[in-house]
């Protein structure tokens, strides 16, 4: 299996969910703080996980799923923060590669300047920025207790709303399992719009 096939597999939320809770947990952890994992699914992975639990496809209690993914989101962001704090200068000077784009770091910095510390909560719902925000917080040496507070609150809101929302739809509308691809397209459309809008705003500035 070459690198492109690995990336394709890791980017497929249905494949990840089918692999079980530990695979989902690892992806959530990686996507929330490892700069080379920015391409992994985030929002729609959480939502579909909730749907699959609600419909019984995933045989886990919803409380267990919420706890695992909340911890993964918090620890992932904490990893990114610590990486930024101790190795951030190397990342800022790093040239673009297939797994790292300087523009993602620049757009995240712009987002921080606009929203301040609350960006750590808002950015949970924004692809790419969600991955780089903890790293940038570490680079800027944000006060640790302050960062931890926003990290925990952001993780709880992000996981709770998306997994909880997906679970509700799975329980109340079990037929949604037959339209998973439309759910993915919906989230991808939002993601694309957000990224393009953010890039255009950054370029104009």
Automatic annotation (TrEMBL):
Q: Where is it located?
A: Cell membrane
Sorted UniProt keywords: Cell membrane, Membrane, Transmembrane, Transmembrane helix
Q: What Pfam families does the database record attribute to this sequence?
A: VTT_dom
Q: How does it sit in the membrane?
A: Multi-pass membrane protein
Work out whether the entry's keyword set contains Cell membrane: yes
Q: Which segments constitute the VTT domain?
A: 40-167
Q: InterPro entries under this entry?
A: DedA-like, VTT_dom
Highest taxon, organism lineage:
Bacteria
**An example Gene Ontology cellular component term from the record?**
plasma membrane
* Transmembrane region(s): 16-40, 60-84, 148-170, 176-200
Q: Does the keyword Protein transport apply?
A: no
Q: What is its main location?
A: membrane
Which family does the similarity line name? Answer: Belongs to the DedA family.
State the protein's name: Membrane-associated protein
């Amino acid at each position: 299996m070459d690198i492109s096939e690995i990336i394709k597999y890791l980017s497929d939320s249905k494949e990840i969910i089918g692999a079980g809770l530990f695979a989902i947990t690892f992806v959530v952890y990686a996507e929330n703080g490892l700069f080379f994992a920015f391409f992994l699914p985030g929002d729609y992975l959480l939502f579909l996980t909730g749907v699959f639990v609600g419909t019984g496809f995933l045989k886990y209690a919803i409380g267990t799923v919420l706890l695992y993914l909340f911890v993964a989101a918090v620890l992932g962001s904490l990893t990114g923060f610590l990486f930024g704090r101790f190795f951030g200068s190397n990342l800022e000077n790093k040239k673009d590669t297939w797994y790292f784009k300087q523009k993602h770091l620049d757009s995240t910095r712009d987002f921080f300047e606009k929203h301040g510390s609350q960006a750590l909560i808002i950015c949970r719902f924004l692809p790419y920025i969600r991955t780089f925000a903890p790293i940038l917080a570490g680079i800027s040496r944000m006060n640790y207790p302050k960062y931890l507070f926003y990290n925990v609150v952001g993780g709880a809101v992000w996981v709770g709303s998306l997994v909880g929302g997906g679970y509700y739809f799975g329980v109340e509308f079990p037929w949604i399992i037959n339209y998973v691809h439309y759910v993915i397209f919906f989230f991808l459309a939002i993601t694309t719009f957000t990224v393009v809008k953010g890039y255009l705003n950054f370029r104009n500035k």
